[in-house]
């Protein structure tokens, strides 16, 4: 999830390969050929979108979130801050606790409070355990594969560039995204009265507010698609699900099919709460990998903003922070290993497009994979080892995260930007 930054400076460039050009969706693009062959081998079908599917994809690139957008539109008819108060009251106490609630708010909460018939709470619990047991490696993959990879699609990354001050605000955005992830991947966290549910809805409203500000600015180029559109929002769900799993498996983690399907299911429900149309939400691992191919098939080329975003993320503070010389050295080592992981998993061409330095650290990750794989086999053979890992990593995360919030002064209430960069 790319939570928008806050700031007042902007570096905006226009991609020459915008989405409506015929090159988008061309199956002969080099990046698609190998993915298409692998998908056919694993799933026995062709993932490339048909003309009808391409038309539907383009339609979703021009769609916002009707229900959340209507709530944000409602804000202008209320005293400043009153709209957010109503949303918070409905989240905390239910829509029935509000006297004469606005129709837009009723419609939104009718959708999020209507638990889908396909929801499986056992799968949610399993997916949360999977998310915790991988420990710090999960953050590595989300930051240096999922977020970095998202920057390669220039159009989808434009909302971040519009709000500027990347160097100063990236650490805060990472912590805010981390707060969201921890909320929604806590066992039971997506219950109606729990923090995961509330965070998902608050982030949804924040995205709608940013979308309105971008459209009202007169600076948004619709050739990039609708800001924070449905297709890009579905792609963000993939970052936390299938891309997350793929990145972890690439460095030696083992997941059963049941665990992989559970993670896809978890993020299907989170996507539902965040306003992504069920029509395009993957319902299985195969659906998710097909959607990932289609996202790559419809992505536009990187541009100069890709490098700005990539370098900002690469230079963000590491988990090892301090003034002692050895802390600085360890921090630099962590930064180098992170860059190496991005180059290993995304390739050197993508690394160059992201402006990342070349480093031999990319060879560290395939070299350590057999050791990780071996430790995973031990975990699977020792009764109770998996749950022990889950509990240990949960405790560590709960102890360390508040300090990160304090250090970055992150806004964990998911309040949107107050003004666009100029």
Task: Please sum up the structure shown.
One of its GO terms (molecular function) is oxidoreductase activity. With 422 residues, the chain is an all-alpha fold.
Distance between the termini: 24 Å
Strand count: 0
| Overall helicity | 55-70%
In DSSP terms (H or I, runs of 4 or more residues), the helix count works out at 19
Structural class: mainly alpha
Largest sheet: none
Beta-strand level of the residues, as a percent range? under 5%
Order of helices and strands: HHHHHHHHHHHHHHHHHHH
Radius of gyration: 21 Å
- Tell me the overall shape: globular
Mean pLDDT: 88
List low-confidence stretches. 4-18
Structure description:
By secondary structure, the chain is mainly alpha-helical. It has a domain at 33-62 and 115-318 and 371-408. It contains 19 helices and no strands. It has helices at residues 30-43, 51-61, 66-75, 82-93, 103-112, 121-133, 136-151, 154-162, 166-184, 195-217, 230-240, 242-249, 257-273, 285-297, 304-314, 325-346, 348-353, 364-381, 385-408. It starts with 29 loop residues before the first helix and ends in a 14-residue tail after the last helix.
């Amino acid at each position: 999830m790319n939570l928008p930054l806050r700031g007042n400076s902007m570096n905006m460039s226009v991609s020459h390969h915008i989405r409506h050009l015929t090159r988008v969706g061309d199956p002969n693009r080099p990046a698609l050929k190998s993915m298409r062959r692998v998908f056919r081998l694993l799933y026995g079908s062709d993932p490339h979108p048909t003309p009808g599917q391409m038309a539907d994809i383009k339609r979703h690139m021009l769609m916002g979130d009707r229900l959340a957008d209507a709530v944000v539109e409602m804000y202008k008819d209320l005293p400043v801050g009153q709209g957010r108060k109503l949303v918070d009251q409905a989240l905390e106490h239910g829509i029935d606790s509000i006297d004469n609630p606005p129709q837009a708010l009723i419609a939104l909460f009718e959708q999020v409070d209507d638990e889908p018939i396909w929801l499986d709470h056992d799968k949610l619990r399993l997916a949360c355990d999977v998310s915790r047991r991988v420990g710090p490696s999960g953050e590595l993959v989300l930051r240096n594969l999922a977020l970095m990879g998202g920057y390669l699609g220039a159009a989808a990354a434009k909302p971040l560039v519009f709000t500027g001050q990347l160097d100063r605000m990236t650490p805060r955005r990472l912590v805010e995204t981390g707060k969201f992830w921890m909320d929604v991947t806590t066992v039971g966290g997506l219950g109606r009265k729990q923090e995961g549910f509330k965070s998902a809805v608050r982030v949804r409203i924040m995205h709608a507010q940013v979308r309105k500000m971008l459209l009202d600015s007169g600076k948004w180029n619709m050739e990039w698609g609708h800001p924070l559109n449905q297709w890009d929002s579905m792609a963000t769900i993939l970052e936390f699900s299938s891309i997350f799993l793929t990145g972890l498996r690439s460095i030696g983690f083992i997941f059963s099919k049941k665990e992989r399907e559970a993670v896809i299911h978890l993020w299907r429900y989170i996507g539902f709460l965040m306003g992504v149309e069920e029509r395009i939400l993957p319902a299985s691992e195969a659906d998710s990998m097909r959607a990932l191919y289609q996202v790559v098939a419809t992505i536009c080329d990187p541009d100069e903003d890709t490098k700005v975003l990539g370098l900002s993320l690469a230079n963000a503070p590491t988990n090892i922070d301090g003034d002692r010389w050895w802390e600085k050295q360890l921090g630099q080592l962590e930064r180098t290993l992170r860059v190496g992981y991005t180059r290993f998993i995304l390739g050197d061409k993508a690394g160059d497009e992201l402006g990342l330095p070349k480093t031999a650290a990319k060879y560290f990750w395939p070299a350590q994979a057999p050791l990780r794989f071996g430790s995973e086999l031990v975990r699977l053979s020792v009764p109770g080892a998996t749950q022990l890992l889950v509990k240990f990593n949960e405790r560590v995360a709960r102890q360390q995260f508040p300090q990160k919030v304090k250090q970055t002064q992150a806004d964990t209430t998911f309040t949107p930007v107050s003004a666009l960069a100029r």
